[in-house]
């Protein structure tokens, strides 16, 4: 019973948002969404979903994006909204 209660509770709670600086860094480097997508092996729409915060990347994808942008993962992704200074 405890497992099913826990599973029900977890399914009702949304995942903590992951904020990112992908768009700012990508545009500063002069890359289009398509170019970044090609570098990391995803569809260009995936880059858009990431930039808008509609999707959190897997660890592998986050590492690929960091490598493609020549940044550390911690420079790209955060649990704090760097744009607004909010959590």
TrEMBL record:
Q: What keywords are annotated for this sequence in UniProt?
A: DNA-binding
UniProt KW Disulfide bond keyword: no
Q: Name one GO molecular function term.
A: DNA binding
Q: Which part of the chain is the HTH cro/C1-type domain?
A: 22-76
Parts forming coiled coils: none
| Record PROSITE patterns | HTH_CROC1
Q: Which SMART domains does the record cross-reference, listed alphabetically?
A: HTH_XRE (SM00530)
- State whether keyword DNA-binding applies: yes
Q: What is this protein called?
A: Unannotated protein
Q: Which species? A: freshwater metagenome
């Amino acid at each position: 019973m405890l497992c099913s209660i826990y599973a029900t509770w977890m399914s009702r709670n949304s995942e903590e948002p992951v904020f990112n600086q992908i768009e700012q860094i990508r545009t500063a480097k002069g890359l289009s969404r398509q170019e970044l997508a090609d570098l990391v092996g995803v569809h260009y729409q995936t880059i858009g979903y990431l930039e808008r915060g509609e999707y959190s990347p897997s660890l592998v994808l986050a590492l690929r994006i960091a490598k493609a942008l020549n940044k550390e993962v911690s420079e790209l992704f955060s649990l704090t909204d760097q744009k607004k200074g909010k959590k």
